[in-house]
Amino acid sequence: MNKIVEASHISHRFGSTIALDDISFKIGEQELFGFIGPDGSGKTTLFRIITTLVVPDEGQMTVLGRDSVKDFRSLRGEIGYMPGRFSLYQDLTVEENLNFYATIFGTTIKENYRLIEAIYSQIEPFRKRRAGALSGGMKQKLALSCALIHKPSLLVLDEPSTGVDAVSRVEFWEMLHKLRDEGITIIVSTPYMDEAMRCDRIALIQNGKTLGIDTPDHIRERFSQKLYAISNPDIYSLLLALRAEKAVHSSYTFGENIHITLAPGATTEDLTKCLEEKGFTEAKITEIIPGVEDTFLELTQK
Amino acid sequence: MIEEKVIEVKDMVKRFGSFVANDHLTFDVYRGEIFGFLGANGAGKTTAIKILCGLSRPSSGKVTVAGIDASHSPEEIKKRIGYMSQRFSLYEDLTVSENIEFYGGIYGMTRKEIFPRMDDLIRRLDFEAYRNTLIREMPLGLRQKLAFSIAVFHNPEIVFLDEPTSGVDPITRRQFWEMIYETARNGITVFVTTHYMDEAEYCNRVTIMNEGRIEALDTPARLKERYGVSNIEELFLLITRPNNKKV
């Protein structure tokens, strides 16, 4: 498989802050690759290096077979980049923005309309509206259209789903899958762990370091212990009780459940009995398959 | 829970020209409750929150917040509530202690009240090392915890949290919710919006807004039972995108 991006020992700092700390990875052709991590983990700096906008302090970044520092000029024409902050011209209309980006990349809306049709058609009724007056979801669709209009080989999306509601997020990921199937390699970052499952491969990232790079399923399998879910009508009381319990090694809330691991030697029967004594007679313990977020929590606690 | 209403909304309508952003909303929020306010982007959540915070007046209907009529005395509401959002809460070029002092002062606390409570707060947050640190130099997770603590520093009756955990790491996100639980136990009502559907499960009751109306309002358990879904995310998709069965 052709390597679209190859990062080798990339480090970068801002003053005394280490933004990226010796990061290496490879991304293949037509992959949908996700960087999963919280704000401040280094995702944006990394994306700026991939898109040739920042020169790394150390290490080498190869994009589409070229060096991101030396060959930045030719690379920029082949990368589509959607920054985390809305960066289109607020005082141009929807149509003017799209036309502007098509023109500076030496193409026309007509030429690549097919590629953006599914997305752009949803905002086309508002094409005469200024970009600054669009809702969050519409801005996101316009930004993606502008990042795609020159038919890039590599699409880099920095937190496209942050602040976007659950429905629009589902739709957005459906669009990304279609684009990948069209042959575009996509790199995307997100703080939402549940979105990790929609990527072909993911890198978990925190404090400028990768905690693991693999398919989402393999990342889940890295969870090293048995994981149990336990629920109770009053979650908070149960959580406090579990914290005080010696048999419990870790406990994290997950929606209506608490996910726990047990201390060495402890059994679920012991725990059930202890909880019953404390009055949690309805608490049920079931073994479950860990998710990406469980693994992330475990890896960051090491 | 004592069923004492701290927010009463009856037939609230907010229009912008011909556009109806809030279409006859009716709901109550009780003291000490964690009330989740969900909806798609553009469903009208922000418009409703602005009215409840005294920043905007309803076009019609009756809105009472902490015993104050939102149509007549919005300024009085502001004194009785706390507010925090993901986008803006603290002054980045002030230190931790300066931000606490500033907000305490804004809410009419005297220096004699502010300083002992500030010491107590910094101790509880384990922030001794950050006392004189500028906010912009602090990690996001810690900022959000501080922002929340400052939003309830003057002991408001209700605290409004607008996407407080957006982009926060998974551990801090959970610690943040524990702060919410503790606050609610101390009798402060928590009114919260979020895009994390697992967080909706942590609320005592949740509303789901769609196109300016409240489509569902109940405890997470009862909503799941009524709609026959296994989690709130499914319900959210069902309500906001009813024609798409695929999801």
Summary tags:
heterodimer; A: 302 residues; alpha/beta; Rossmann fold; Alpha-Beta Plaits; 2 domains; six-stranded mixed beta sheet; four-stranded antiparallel beta sheet; elongated; B: 247 residues; 9 helices; 10 strands; globular
Order of helices and strands of chain B: EEEHEEHEHHHEHEHEEHH
Radius of gyration of chain B: 18 Å
Mean pLDDT of chain A: 93
* The level-1 CATH class of chain B: Alpha Beta
- Say what the CATH topology of the largest domain in chain A is: Rossmann fold
Number of strands of chain B: 10
Percent range for β-strand residues of chain B: 25-35%
Strand order across the biggest sheet of chain B?
6-7-8-3-9-10
Rg estimate of chain A, integer Å: 23 Å
**DSSP summary: helix tally of chain A:** 10
Largest interface: A-B, 36 and 40 residues
Considering the protein shown, what is the CATH homologous superfamily of the largest domain in chain A? P-loop containing nucleotide triphosphate hydrolases
Named CATH topology of chain B: Rossmann fold
From the helix content, strand content and strand pairing of chain A, which structural class follows? alpha/beta
Q: Structural class of the secondary elements of chain B?
A: alpha/beta
